[in-house]
Amino acid sequence: MPNFTAFVILLAVILYFWTGFRVGQARGKFKISAPATTGSPDFERVFRVQMNMLEWMPIFLPAIWLAAIYVSDIGAALLGLVWIAGRVLYMRGYSAAAEKRETGFFMQAIAAGLLWLAALVGVLVSMLHP
Amino acid sequence: MPNFTAFVILLAVILYFWTGFRVGQARGKFKISAPATTGSPDFERVFRVQMNMLEWMPIFLPAIWLAAIYVSDIGAALLGLVWIAGRVLYMRGYSAAAEKRETGFFMQAIAAGLLWLAALVGVLVSMLHP
Amino acid sequence: MPNFTAFVILLAVILYFWTGFRVGQARGKFKISAPATTGSPDFERVFRVQMNMLEWMPIFLPAIWLAAIYVSDIGAALLGLVWIAGRVLYMRGYSAAAEKRETGFFMQAIAAGLLWLAALVGVLVSMLHP
Question: How far is CA A48 from CA A52, A95, C35, C37, in A?
Fold first, then answer.
């Protein structure tokens, strides 16, 4: 089993949970009651941090798992840590101002792209040399 | 293969599909045409039921699968059933009024948290005693 | 390992990434700055294409993976290609007009439903004849 990657996935899941927890806090702070998700740009940026991480989970999770299975557990886990670091930067930047989200965004996008590429190469090699 | 957990995952997926189906029905009932997702609090609560379950799927799915693989298929499946029951309560409560969503929410949050914790312990034990 | 299905999952992930990339482009074209996600129906339809694919990923990914493991790698991969074709039709239709999204929607819904059903039958057979 790809133990290191499983551990990194659980770290990513808890960070993602945290982005949702912050939305609950921001609801109180900026007085945005459920079910509304708009009404204050400060609230909306915190909400979009969670939503953007949600949007990337169906890219990150299949890519890291297939990269771990087909190529390298430790390699996938290390790229997963870079992805998590990019998500933390994105969270901190975007919570402050919309234009400060870019560094973290590109960092996590590159890490996810490399995981996807590694998985693709691994799968193709397995298909050609079963 | 973790058969019981696979079965419970398929149950969770069909419940999640159902929360989306209800959004389509609510579009007709409350006259909210696509692509709009706002305009009526009654519609927005039904929409938020689906969105909230979507938000929790990237927590639930990796946690239950890793808990099943690393710890116990039947244990993970039983916690998965508690999670599903919490999601049903949340759906019924939130559809009626925003403040009635809390019991189901905490029930599913605790079940998902226990699955995540079980997976973490299982992965750490595997890393330390390969 | 279910190589063909892993390959199709990676195709689905890149198409999904593309639906998000188009949202970034549409932000510029229709002058909708982050964190806003409303303000122009033309932007909102492009945004909803991404969101709808995001909504279906937690149905598609578990269903295709379990169908591949429990029933047939090639069968799951072929249904996965139909799903992807339905998503492409949906993207092209919805980007033009809200009512043009229906053909692609039903195509992908039927493919995802068959994957779910195949997975369910496969899991039940495994539970009854271990």
Answer: 6, 9, 6, 10
- Taking contacts as CB-CB distances below 8 angstroms, the residues of chain B near A36 are 44
Angle at B57 between CA B53 and CA B59, to 5 degrees: 120
- Look up residue A33 and give its amino acid: S
For chain A, the distance separating the N- and C-terminal CA atoms, rounded to the nearest angstrom, is 20
Q: How far is C-alpha C44 from the chain's CA centre? A: 18
Single out the residue of C30, B106, C52, C34 nearest to residue A49, CA to CA. C34
User: How far is B58 from B48, CA to CA, in rounded Å?
Assistant: 16
User: ∠C8-C88-A63 over CA atoms, to 5°?
Assistant: 35
Cβ of A10 and B66 within 8 Å? yes
- Mind listing the pLDDT tens digit for each residue in B22-49? 999 999 999 998 888 888 899 999 999 9
* Residues from chain B contacting residue A1 (CB–CB below 8 Å): 69-70, 126
Q: What is the C-alpha separation between C7 and C12, in angstroms, rounded?
A: 9
Q: Is the pTM of this model over 0.90?
A: yes
What's the angle, vertex CA B47, arms to CA B45 and CA B48, rounded to 5?
A: 65
**What's the pLDDT tens digit per position in C38-71?**
888 899 999 999 999 999 999 999 999 999 999 9
Output C26-33 pairs: Cβ under 8 A, ≥24 positions apart. Answer: C33/A98
